[in-house]
Design a protein that fits this description.
Elements: E1 14-17, E2 28-29, H1 30-49, E3 52-59, E4 65-68, E5 74-75, H2 81-93, E6 102-104, E7 125-127, H3 128-137, H4 141-151, H5 153-163, E8 175-176, H6 178-194, H7 196-205, H8 214-217, E9 223-230, E10 235-242, E11 248-255, H9 259-281, E12 285-288, E13 292-295, E14 303-307, E15 312-314, E16 317-319, E17 322-327, E18 330-335, E19 339-344, E20 360-363, E21 368-373, E22 376-383, E23 388-391, E24 393-394, E25 398-403, E26 406-411, E27 420-421
Amino acid sequence: MRIGKIILSVILVVSIFLPGEASAAGLVTAQQNFSAKLAPELNKYIKSAGGTVTLKYEDLVTGDTYTVGSALSGRAASTIKLPLAIYVMELASKGKLNLNQKLVYKKYHYYGGSGVIRYQKVGTSYTIRDLVQKAMVHSDNIAFIMLRERVGKANFITYMKSLGAKNAYPNGQNLTSPNDLAIYAKKLYNFSKVHPLGKELDGYLRKTVYNTTIPKGIPGIPIAHKVGMIPDSKIYNDVAVIYDKTPYTLSVMTKNISYEKSQRVIAGIASIVHKHHKAKEAAIIFRTKADTPVYLKPAKGQAIGALMAKMDFKVKSIQGEWAVISFGKGTAYIERKLIIAAVSPGVPSEQFITIPQNNSIMTTAQNAAIQSSPGGGGQLGTLFKGIEIFIYGETADHYLIEVAGRKGYIKKADIAVPVQPSP
């Protein structure tokens, strides 16, 4: 890690992106509320910190983001080790690299700063897996140099660009941005879900010896993260996957803040962001972005029904990438990426069922449209053929049911089995 001079500046360029459709009239989204409440608190905190702070937050389930100068590049320091480790492990996952291959530590590999290999004898052999572990847990500079040599710097640059990074050793400089770091964190998260080597790498990053930044601001939550610092140049960066109930990434870059203070600043930012993330996560009112399949289990399979686009509804609970709703005779699941969390509903409260009394059970004879009123109204969703459901009342031609916390009506003609008393 080298010494350099950084010009003092404070950047508070904030941009907010809401994926999917813009919120409709009458609906205040949880992300809008998150951004509106986070921005003033975070901006005040960053201003008081001095120096330059840039960051990016991304909800890994909904895709919601919040940024502060996130496209601005700065010195990456040891955060560059994260994309290299992902590249190495991905090559191994494809059978293009053997993690048990041994590489020899040579004199020209030596580099001061962080790490443990510098204390060992030149000529010592290390497996590629061991070098990855040391580069992640101990931020070992020599391990990084040996790994980069093994895969080739040009290939590494091509890989970073293929992921969408804008700063891949531009003009030979080790630069990055919160946007690029967020790309690497998201790649780590996705890789860890689909391959054992991704999970192994994620495990190394949960055991790093540097935990005075993002993990300190969010105690008690599993966090995989990679720091990068140049103390003499007042550079400190951290990028993390925070494994909350709703996982998210946070990448923070600081400069012109003292080594000790920068760690406290990053921890403070993490604490503030997490507080507002939890408030957003607590939403129980949602709106569908598009027609949304309903499943009996939290996995894509045969759907048992559907909710119509732009329907406001309630969830019973959140399970990672799935929302649990009342549907049929019990609970069902919908993908969270297809819905928008809200602070308040865009429909009158009387359209929601509060404490329904289960009187009887019925079974659909065919696909049954669920209407918002017995006179028709808008369609809320569909119950597919053969689905059992509780009824709570009836009119001359319709049964009253609950669908995701909403009152719904289906035609009596769509029922196959005579109504039986509920046990």
